[in-house]
């Protein structure tokens, strides 16, 4: 059960280990779902610049909601934990911690932006597996030492090891599935050759399915029609490009959680004596503010100077593009609340344990299979590797959660 206190501190604080694990679990579900929505829109042909701008708006809105609802309740205690509003007026004293939070937001924003392009090149499952592995190896290790070894090392690093095994299995899944795709494309003559792009779109995104009986998910015709529809063209392009973007995204993700940890716990003693540490909700607000500013600046630039051969657009074109806007806005809300829950759980149980949300490929792989048929009609070897990867991820997230400690409060 989640235990919170609101009276004397003026904020809601997760206090129990069970409450922290509940926050982390919900965060895992959220953070594994929003990439699927972005991938869905890209496959529908919506420009990634338009999608990410919409996503950024509601992502920031979620941070404001969390800060005002959970960070400004009850009476404030200035000497211990001021409320969210109180700390906003104390930036002249707590600015070092604010800078850490802002830097973390920059890392997350760039990482999420890179992820959106990586999803098109290497797929939902491989993108999430690779970026999560880098985050665990770097970010979890850093958080463990920043938290003064709050978590049980034997359990924590056993989870990290399981995660790395799952990453190897994930790479094998991708290699096997790529071979399956090549085999399908080599047998195009055996698939339905008469399928039109319009008919394909009806089959994949809703419509009169009975008119598409000759089209089967996972076939060569399906893959080629998808390429014709999607916003970012990927067939025939080097996998090195996509993997490089994915590794870059993982590096960015590995930094934002330790920076948020420093913002809320001041392990480097950057605050003057007597200055209260940033509460989670204040840090999350500044974190999300920089994330929003960077996202808007980069994506407005990409409207006019697109990258990776994406179509050029304009701000007017973005405003007039309502196709899929609701899904993009929903993705931002889901991601915003997922990040907030991760930080709330991490403040109570340790940010290394909160990095269990990096097992989000469990969720993303489910959506990849259910929504996109990523492994439909694949070989038995691919299915066996896929099951092994998912089992190892489940073990990894269980071990990381079991390593949770309890942070001492003043």
From TrEMBL:
Domain of life, per lineage: Eukaryota
UniProt keyword list: ATP-binding, Membrane, Nucleotide-binding, Transmembrane, Transmembrane helix, Transport
Main location: membrane
Entry keyword DNA-binding: no
Signal peptide: none
UniProt topology in membrane: Multi-pass membrane protein
One Pfam family matching this protein: Ureide_permease
Localization (cell): Membrane
TM stretches of this protein: 19-40, 52-74, 94-114, 121-143, 155-174, 239-259, 279-304, 325-345, 351-372, 384-404
Matching InterPro entries: UPS_plant, Ureide_permease
Family: Belongs to the plant ureide permease (TC 2.A.7.19) family.
Protein name (database record): Ureide permease 5
UniProt organism field: Brassica napus (Rape)
């Amino acid at each position: 059960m989640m235990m919170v206190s609101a009276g004397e501190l003026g904020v809601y604080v997760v206090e129990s280990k069970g409450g922290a694990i509940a926050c982390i679990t919900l965060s895992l579900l959220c953070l594994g779902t929003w990439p699927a929505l972005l991938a869905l829109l890209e496959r529908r042909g919506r420009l990634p610049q338009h999608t990410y701008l919409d996503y950024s708006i509601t992502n920031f809105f979620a941070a404001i909601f969390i800060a005002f609802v959970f960070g400004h309740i009850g009476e404030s205690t200035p000497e211990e934990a001021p409320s969210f509003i109180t700390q906003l007026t104390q930036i002249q004293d707590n600015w070092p911690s604010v800078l850490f939070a802002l830097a973390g937001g920059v890392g997350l924003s760039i990482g999420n932006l890179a992820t959106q392009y990586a999803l098109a090149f290497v797929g939902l499952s491989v993108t999430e597996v690779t970026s999560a592995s880098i985050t665990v190896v770097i970010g979890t290790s850093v958080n463990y030492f920043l938290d003064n070894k709050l978590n049980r090392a034997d359990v924590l690093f056993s989870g990290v090891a399981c995660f790395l095994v799952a990453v190897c299995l994930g790479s094998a899944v991708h290699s096997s599935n790529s071979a399956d795709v090549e085999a399908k494309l080599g047998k195009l003559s055996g698939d339905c050759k008469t399928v039109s792009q319009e008919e394909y779109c009806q089959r994949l995104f809703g419509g009169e399915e009975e008119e598409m009986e000759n089209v089967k998910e996972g076939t060569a015709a399906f893959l080629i029609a998808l390429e014709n529809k999607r916003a970012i063209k990927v067939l025939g392009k080097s996998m090195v490009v996509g993997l490089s973007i994915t590794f870059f995204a993982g590096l960015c993700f590995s930094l934002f959680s330790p920076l948020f940890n420093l913002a809320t716990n001041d392990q480097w003693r950057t605050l003057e004596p007597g200055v209260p540490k940033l509460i989670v909700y204040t840090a999350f607000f500044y974190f999300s503010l920089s994330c929003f500013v960077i996202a808007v600046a980069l994506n407005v630039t990409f409207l006019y100077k697109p990258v990776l051969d994406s179509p050029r657009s304009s701000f007017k074109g973005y405003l007039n593009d309502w196709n899929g806007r609701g899904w993009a806005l929903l993705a931002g809300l889901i991601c915003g609340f997922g990040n907030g829950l991760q930080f709330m759980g991490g403040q109570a149980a340790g940010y290394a344990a909160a990095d269990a949300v990096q097992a989000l490929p469990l969720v993303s792989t489910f959506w990849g299979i259910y929504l996109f048929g990523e492994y439909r009609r694949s070989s038995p070897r691919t299915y066996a590797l896929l099951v092994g990867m998912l089992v190892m991820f489940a073990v990894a997230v269980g071990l990381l959660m079991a390593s949770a400690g309890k942070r001492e409060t003043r």
